[in-house]
């Protein structure tokens, strides 16, 4: 099984008073300014049962070419600055960082 980059996966429950739209805009702005981020996806859970969700509502996934790209991202001044605001908005978090084991590559969706 070949590795295919390095993944940064974050699952969060935001605090009640968080302006989630502002956090999302901030994240989108952040990743657009840092070249080591090769892809960024996010989603809000609307399908899982509350019991299975355990309060978590949003997932964020970033892909990097390798671990060095991830380390470069985490030490970037823009990431350091944004992390303070992001952390202040979080009630609960699960964070996983791992080399990707590619089993089936994503299929490109045509427009």
TrEMBL record:
List, alphabetically, the Gene3D superfamilies matched. Answer: 3.30.70.100
Where does the record place the Stress-response A/B barrel domain? 6-98
Q: So which domain of life are we looking at? A: Eukaryota
Q: State the name under which the record lists this protein.
A: Stress-response A/B barrel domain-containing protein
Q: Which InterPro entries match?
A: Dabb, Dimeric_a/b-barrel, HS1/DABB1-like
Kindly list the organism's lineage. Eukaryota, Viridiplantae, Streptophyta, Embryophyta, Tracheophyta
One family name in Pfam for this protein? Dabb
> What is the species of this protein?
Arabis alpina
What is its quaternary makeup? Homodimer.
């Amino acid at each position: 099984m070949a590795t295919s980059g390095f993944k940064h996966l974050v699952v969060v429950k935001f605090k009640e008073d968080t302006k989630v739209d502002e956090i999302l805009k901030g994240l989108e702005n952040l990743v657009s300014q840092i070249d080591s981020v090769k892809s960024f996806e996010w989603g809000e859970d609307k399908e899982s049962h509350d019991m299975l969700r355990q309060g978590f509502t949003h997932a964020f996934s970033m892909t990097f070419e390798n671990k060095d790209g991830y380390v470069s991202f985490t030490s970037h001044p823009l990431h350091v600055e944004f992390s303070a605001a992001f952390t202040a908005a979080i009630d609960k978090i699960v964070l996983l960082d791992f080399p990707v084991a590619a089993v089936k590559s994503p299929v490109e969706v045509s427009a």
